[in-house]
Amino acid sequence: xxxxxxxxxxxxxxxxxxxALARELLPDGHRNGGYWIGRxxxxxDRHAGSFWILLKRNPGVxxxxxxxxxxxxxxxxxxxxxxxxxRATRDWCVRWLGWxxxxxxxxxxxxxxxxxxxxxxxxxxxEASEAEELAKQSGRAFSLWLKxxxxxxxxxxxxxxxxxxxxxxxxxxxxxxxxxxxxPGAIRFSASxxxxxxxxxxxxxxxxxxxxxxxxxxxxxxxxxxxxxxxGSGKAAFPDPERNKARKIWPSPVGAVxxxxxxxxxxxxxxxxxxxxxxxxxxxxxxxxxxxxxISCPDHRVWAAGTLGNIAHVPVLPxxxxxxxxxxxxxxxxxxxxxxxxxxxxxKAHGRPVAIARSTIGKDMNDLLKGEPV
Length: 374
Prior knowledge:
alpha+beta, single chain
């Protein structure tokens, strides 16, 4: 259905007040950088972070990562308000904005063009400002990663990070260092990384695995953080586990990956492209799964996407001959299965063969490596 012509003005006004609107429509959510993060109230959503609303770039754009539902700020109002059509949506927006309803005096063509030019100018300025802010956050994230300890044959053995990875069955000293294979350059370690607790309860510090996420051009874009328990025996337990999930990646992971293994020839994607060499790429959601595959399949390039939703945005570069998606064994979860299907379709659009691989036991490839039928 086509929207009434004055929806453009309504959309602009809603975008200008997007955080207040997000609080209205998703009151149990919270702000996380440029996102409003929460649960989808229209389904049994147990994971805060699966539903997000953009507060900066393209304000009001939203997505449910589990179902794939998405849209702009007008669709957001209609979706969460469960409104039957655009007329009802317009009426809701007008009331919320405090505008008077009823027929509006028509604009002249010249006035309309002037309004459009002004709107386009404001949009361009907003997008430029948001891109600048995102670049600053990306730079700060990269700076944080640079300050962390690089993994080397000297720094890794005996560290808390080694303890944690061994708890996941990942003996990198045995399978990489002692075998003369390189440690993943994207992974670094912070002995004390701050974690801000929810509801103004201050902050705490924990050891942390900090990994670099790079875009299609190979440049830094974001970091992924896994806070660990003080003794390194597992992941840190925080009083706000759902919020922890939403804070792991900073700032935006879309289209970025954690490069875990270079595969045969130990070439970066850029070096492989220059030499005209292509090979298989394995994509996982989590870092531990990616390490499990990198250890077991040294001739494959392995990347971690960080989230299931981001697998659809993984860059398929010239160095990739085919893509293997290492999926979790959660086919009973219809929403996750649907998200995986969309990711596979998006990857196939690049013109390469795409296959799905699953562990024969347990939940994922890390369970397969450990031999644990969890």
